[in-house]
Design brief:
Blueprint: E1 7-11, E2 17-21, E3 26-31, E4 46-50, E5 56-61, E6 65-70, E7 76-81, E8 89-93, E9 99-104, E10 109-114, E11 120-125, E12 132-137, E13 143-148, E14 152-157, E15 173-176
Antiparallel strand pairs: 1-2, 2-3, 4-5, 5-6, 6-7, 8-9, 9-10, 10-11, 12-13, 13-14, 14-15
Length: 191
C-alpha cells in the first residue's frame, strides 16, 4: 500500500508490478520493473515499494539496481546502480532509501551501503554455520532487523557507521522467533 492506503501494488512471475486503485478495482499504472530480469543468468528475488514521494514507485532486485518509476506514466524516472559484489544480493532498502542492505547467504555476512555512493558503512555476520534470510528496517530507519535461518531475530542500531575495515556489529537485542519458518519468511514492524 502507499502511505494513504489508496493504492496497492501487486506483482507476479512476469516481474511486472501493477498499481491498483483498489477501491475502484482498476489498474492505474503498470511498472515493467527490471527489463533485464528474465534475461539474466542470475535470476533472483525482485522487490517493489511505494516511495516517500507521492508519484514514485521503487523497484530493486538482487543485482544492485534501484529504479524509480513515475506512477502517472509508468516510465523510468531515475536509476541508481550500486556495487555488484560477487555472492552478495541486494535485499532491502531503508525507508528514506539512503541505505541498501546486501547479503551473502553462503558466508552469513550482511553489509549496509549508502545510496547512491555504495560506500560500506556497517556489517553484520551470523555465527558460523548460520545464514540470515529476512531483512527489515523499522519505519523510522533507526533499527535494522535480521532473522537467522534458525529463527533467531536480531536487532541492530542502523545509525552506526564504521570506517573500513568493517567489524561486524553486535546486536542490541535478539529473541527466538517463530519456530515454523522458511528462509524467506518475512519480518514486519508495526507503524
Amino acid at each position: 500500500f502507499n502511505t494513504d492506503g489508496s493504492l496497492l501494488a501487486t506483482t507476479g512471475l512476469d516481474g511486472r508490478f501493477l498499481i491498483w486503485d483498489w477501491r475502484d478495482e482498476h489498474v492505474l499504472s503498470e511498472i515493467p520493473g527490471n527489463p533485464s530480469y528474465w534475461d539474466s543468468d542470475r535470476l533472483g528475488r525482485f522487490y517493489g515499494r511505494f516511495a516517500a514521494a507521492p508519484n514514485l514507485f521503487v523497484t530493486f532486485w538482487d543485482h544492485a539496481a534501484i529504479r524509480e518509476w513515475d506512477l502517472t506514466t509508468g516510465e523510468l524516472a531515475g536509476e541508481t546502480l550500486l556495487p555488484d559484489e560477487a555472492g552478495f544480493s541486494l535485499e532491502s532498502l531503508s525507508p528514506d532509501m539512503t541505505v541498501a542492505v546486501f547479503s551473502n547467504p553462503s558466508t552469513g555476512i550482511v553489509i549496509g551501503r549508502t545510496v547512491p555512493s555504495g560506500e560500506a558503512i556497517w556489517s553484520v555476520r551470523a555465527k558460523q554455520g548460520t545464514g540470515i534470510g529476512s531483512f527489515l528496517f523499522s519505519p523510522d530507519g533507526s533499527i535494522f532487523a535480521a532473522r537467522t535461518i534458525e529463527g533467531l531475530v536480531l536487532f541492530f542500531d542502523a545509525a552506526i557507521h564504521s570506517a573500513p575495515p568493517l567489524e561486524p556489529m553486535e546486536p542490541i537485542a535478539s529473541f527466538a522467533g517463530h519456530p515454523a519458518f522458511n528462509h524467506y519468511s518475512p519480518l514486519a514492524f508495526g507503524p
